[in-house]
Specification:
Blueprint (H helix, E strand, L loop, with lengths): L2 H7 L8 E4 L1 H6 L15 E6 L26 E2 L2 E2 L2 E3 H10 L5 E5 L6 H16 L4 E6 L6 H10 L3 E7 L3 H8 L9 H15 L4 E7 L5 H14 L2 E6 L16 H15 L9 E2 L5 E3 L4 H10 L38 H11 L21
Bound molecules: iron/sulfur cluster (SF4).
The site of iron/sulfur cluster has 14 residues, from strand 2, strand 6, strand 7, strand 8 and strand 9.
Protein name: Radical SAM protein
Pfam families: Radical_SAM
GO molecular function: catalytic activity; iron-sulfur cluster binding; metal ion binding
Length: 371
């Protein structure tokens, strides 16, 4: 993309009049040129509240954390820059794109985030309520039960909480006191429980990131806990964001992600439970708790390896976040149904317990955008 266009789209403005949107959403809305690899289509417009003082938290793995010395609107999040666009323009454009089925409003940690989420939600649904669903990706810190009741009353379809870490120790280390960050494990689970309670079974979600230091067993146990509460897991493969405190860490190994992806699919669709699965001494899944025929059928369907996220009006997953957690050279969450050649590669990864193979990957392309 031309540098001057990128500069003009990343001028710092303020919510609720302006929102940041993912680069994929900007392409879908025709704001930036480009086509997705293998003609992937995005049916969800992912937006993010934005303020000059940025996010007031400091999660170690996040590209938006306050410690980064870059103008806030130019920071990157889930691998790419997020252009800043007027809310009215987003609504106008979304109305014209035939295949948009959902819009997601993601909060950051900021004193105005909850109030502004309600205003944006109201304005989007006033214009597009008969066409699309709206999800909220909320920050648990500062959220009350009444806020979730308000979100539901205003028309939110799904409320999702980004717990991200599988264990309390990892959560504390990467998002809590040692990071000078305000988040607490207990608060996030309490708010997820409230979301399940208010929104109902299937209308609450939990974002979890694989590869932050947990074992497969720990992550899968947490996915089961989320499902038992009535929520579904939206899974991400850890990618070291440029400028985050973890930028020098390695991405989540593909084999680890494949096994957790498969297990998540079984748990969320109630095909098997965590207790049915078996793990080796390294906490890696060695038995998914299903018979061979079921395994083969599900494996070759490719569905377990597709992005997990909120559904659309006509699609199982509207929020497919194209290449949000990997490069197109080694896709982790497939935004489309993987083909036979993809599945052959996935199979090798799924049964790789040594994890010494260096699956091809390229450097995070966003590293070079502002040089
Ligand atoms: S999965 Fe749902 S909550 Fe998460 S980013 Fe996508 S639309 Fe938002």
């Amino acid at each position: 993309m031309h540098r001057s266009l990128l500069e003009s789209l990343t001028v710092q403005r303020e919510s609720p009049e302006y929102l940041q949107i993912s680069m994929a959403a900007a392409m879908t809305l025709g704001l930036v040129p480009g086509q997705f690899y293998r003609n992937t289509k995005l049916s969800c417009i992912n937006t993010l509240l934005t303020y000059p003082s940025g996010c007031h938290a400091t999660c170690a793995y996040c590209g938006l954390q306050k410690a980064r010395e870059v103008e806030y609107s130019k920071k990157n999040f889930i691998r790419v820059e997020w252009p800043t666009v007027a809310l009215d323009e987003i609504i106008d454009r979304a109305e014209k794109v035939g295949h948009v089925e959902r819009l997601c409003i993601a909060q950051i940690t900021h004193p105005r985030a909850i109030r502004d989420t309600k205003e944006v939600l109201e304005r989007v649904l006033r214009r597009l309520g008969d066409k699309i669903f709206v999800s909220l990706l909320i920050n648990a810190t500062g959220t009350t039960y009444q806020d979730i009741l308000d979100y539901k009353k205003l028309g939110a379809d799904t409320v999702t909480v980004a717990i991200d870490c599988a264990t309390p120790e990892i959560f504390e280390r990467l998002r809590g006191k040692p990071m000078n960050s305000p988040h607490k494990w207990e608060t996030f689970w309490k708010v997820l429980e409230w979301a399940c309670d208010v929104m109902g079974d299937g209308y609450a979600g939990c974002h979890l990131v694989v590869g932050l230091g947990e074992t497969e067993q720990e992550m899968i146990e947490t996915i089961q806990k989320v499902r038992d509460l009535g929520a579904r897991t939206h899974l991400f493969s850890f990618w070291p964001e440029e400028g985050s405190m973890m930028e020098k860490e390695k991405p989540c190994p593909a084999p680890q992600y494949r096994r957790v992806q498969f297990a998540r699919y079984l748990i969320d669709n109630q095909i098997a439970r965590y207790e049915d699965m078996k793990f080796n001494e390294n906490g890696q899944v060695i038995d998914f708790g299903i018979d061979k025929d079921t395994f083969e059928e599900l494996f070759w369907s490719g569905r377990p390896f597709m992005t997990s996220g909120c559904r659309g009006k006509t699609t199982e997953v509207a929020c497919n976040r194209p290449f949000g957690d990997s490069s197109p050279t080694d896709i982790r969450s497939y935004p489309f149904k993987p083909e036979k050649r993809d599945l052959e590669r996935i199979r090798k990864q799924l049964f790789d317990y040594e994890m010494t193979t260096n699956y091809p990957d390229i450097l995070n392309p966003s590293v070079f955008r502002y040089q």
